[in-house]
Structures are given as structure tokens and as C-alpha cells.
Amino acid sequence: MKGVLLVALLCALSVVHTKKTVVCFYGSWAAHRTGQGRFTVNNLDPHLCTHLVYAFSGINAQGMVVSIDPKLDLAEDNGADNYRQFNELKKKNTELKTLLAVGGFNEGSAKFSRMAASPALRKNFIESAIVTINKHGFNGLDVSWLYPNQRDSPNHQADVDNFSALLKEMRVYFDQRGLLLTIAVSAAPKVASKSYNVAALAQYVHLVNLMAHDLHGPWDPFTNHNAALHKGEGEQNVAKEDLLTDEAAVEYWLSKGCPPEKLVLGLPFFGHTYKLRYARINGVNAPATGPGIMGPHTQIPGAIAYFELCNLIRTENWLIKRDELAGVPYATKGENWMSYDDYQSIKAKVAFANKHNLAGVMAWSVEYDDFNNVCGGGKFTLLNAIHQVINEESIINNNNGTKASL
């Protein structure tokens, strides 16, 4: 009996409860919107995220990290001083970690490609990143190079190894200063396979933020989901390597050597819209001719924020359907078709991340949530959906030593 009790005690000591990671990207350009769409640092709730990421800074021709919007980011020349205000959120939540994201889709790939290929430019990048982080009070840097070996990259295949080399050098300098290093990466396996040596880069970063959105969109000739959890209607015969789902993305990244305790599943707080070719053919995989409606505040063709789409659904005659296989909703009205995530699908995705023992989830991005409670689901509807599930069963095996604090 004593032996049984001893075994039970040892088993109990081998697990620890941990707070799961909730990474929240903040698109700072939302401060330039007007009316109900305007979202400033003051709108952020520092208690709903473990990590807040300020998007985006850029890099110049010398490889140095620079502000893209100095009038908003900095204090000089009567600027809005957003960097300071953003980092002062840690006074309200002392456990909060803040990071500065460098890159993003609009920054392109060429600058990163040239920088990563040059030892001198890599040094400039690392040193300027550290100066910026320390000057403004960030806890670390997120490298959002979209994407190595693709788009306008001049160095092509060499980018893959150069990216890993860059992260290796960065981690040495960042560890010396207690700084966090994370990356934002493509979720789609066929895109990721061209851009990353997963096992190599994963060892040098604290977190890998999986951008599990834009898996389908109005650039496709048929409607499909922005970010299906599983394969959905009409996809039962699609080859595994061709699937564009959260499940396929997570399986790919884990199979290629990314540790689950570093992988963060991205959750889109926006939808994609299509214009149907025939209004009467309006299911998944219906013929489409391009982007549909855009959000009245965000003004992005073929895309719409959650706070905008939930208001449209609430006030107009949209028909809501669910692809039960894919685990996500969609909505139609006449020739308009919209793919999005809601409270229910977000909770299901968080449960999926928990089931696979991932580090947590990432929101792209918080200013798209219903931050003004326009739709009556409470402020930050989707972020609160995350918190309904995120720390359920968050138990990790601790036999292999202590886990670094993130």
C-alpha cells in the first residue's frame, strides 16, 4: 500500500499546472481609423493576453529596425508616443510581456533577405533591435518575415538557412539580456516547406506564432474557409498534403520538429468575403468571381473585421450556416459570401490547441474583435471565448527539467 501511495505521489509531482500562452497582436494602424472603428492603445485590455505584440516596425536598407509610423510610435516631433503607452500597460498587469513585431506582409521579403545574407547587416539588425527594445521598454522581438525564399526575395533558397542563422545569432544576444525572441510563420504546409527549416529555427526561438489564417480567400475561384479547423464539406477526397486547415498546419509543424510547447495556434479575428458567381449556388466551394463586401471601417477588399461582420449579421438579413465538418461558420446574403470565426469556433480551436499540448493560441488581431460590444456579446467577444477554454487541462509533464518562463 505504501508503495502505491509513493508511486501516486511521484506521479503527482511529475506534472505542474501552467498558464497557457495567449499572444495578442495589435495592429497599430487601427489608431488612424475614425468613429467606432478607431482602436488605440487605450482600448487594449492587458489582462486578456499573456503577450502583447505591437505590429509593425520595419527595417531600412542598412538592416536596422526602424519605426514605420514615427508620428504614431515615437515621442519626437510631437508624436503620439505609442511605444511608451503600449509598454506602460505592464503597470496594470505586471505579468504581461510586450514585444515589438518587425516585418509584416507590407514590408515584403527583400529587405529581410538582404539583411539575413550579410553578417554586417545581421549585426546591424540585432543591435538596433536591442536598442529599440530597451529604449522603449519591450520584453522582446517578434520577427515576422513574410516570407523567406518567396515573394520579392533576391536570395531565394539561401533565405532558408540564412533565417535560421539569423535567429541563432539573435538568441545568443537576447539570452544575455533576458529578452524574448518569437517568430510569426506561415501555416500552410506548401508555403512553409519553401520558407523554413522548422527543426533548425524552432530551437532558437521562445515561441512560434502560426499564422493560421488566409488559408483560403477571395483570390480563389471558389468559396472556402479562411481558417477551417478540419477538412470540410466537399474535401473528403482532397490529398493530405493539399489540405489547408488548422489541423493540417499543426500536424505539419509538429512533424517537422517544432516542439508543441513552442507552437502557438493563430486564430483570425476577421473574415474573408467573396462575390458569388451565382447567388443561388452559395455553399462551400461555390463559384466566385473575387472579393465581396469590405468592412466599413477597415476598408480592406475581401476582408472584414469581426466587429464589422457581427454587426452586419445582427442588422441585416444574412443566412448563417455551419460547416460542421470544418468546425467553422459562414454566411450568405444574395451574391455575398463570408467566411469567419465566431465564439463557438474560437472555443473549438482553443480546445484543439489544448488537446495537442500546444503552448497556446495567438489572436490576429485584437483590434478586429468586438471591442465596443457593438453586437451585444460583451467587450472583446472572441478574446473572452479564448479564456473560456484556454487553461482547461493545462497540465504539462515536467520530467525533463524546468520550463523557461515566457
From TrEMBL:
Residues 1-18 form the signal peptide. Coiled coil: none annotated. It holds the Pfam family Glyco_hydro_18. Transmembrane segments: none annotated. SUPFAM superfamilies: (Trans)glycosidases, Chitinase insertion domain. CDD domains: GH18_chitolectin_chitotriosidase (cd02872). It comes from the Eukaryota. Keywords: Signal. Residues 20-393 form the GH18 domain. InterPro entries: Chitinase_II/V-like_cat, Chitinase_insertion_sf, GH, Glyco_hydro18_cat, Glycosyl_Hydrlase_18. This is GH18 domain-containing protein. It comes from Chilo suppressalis. The lineage of its organism: Eukaryota, Metazoa, Ecdysozoa, Arthropoda, Hexapoda.
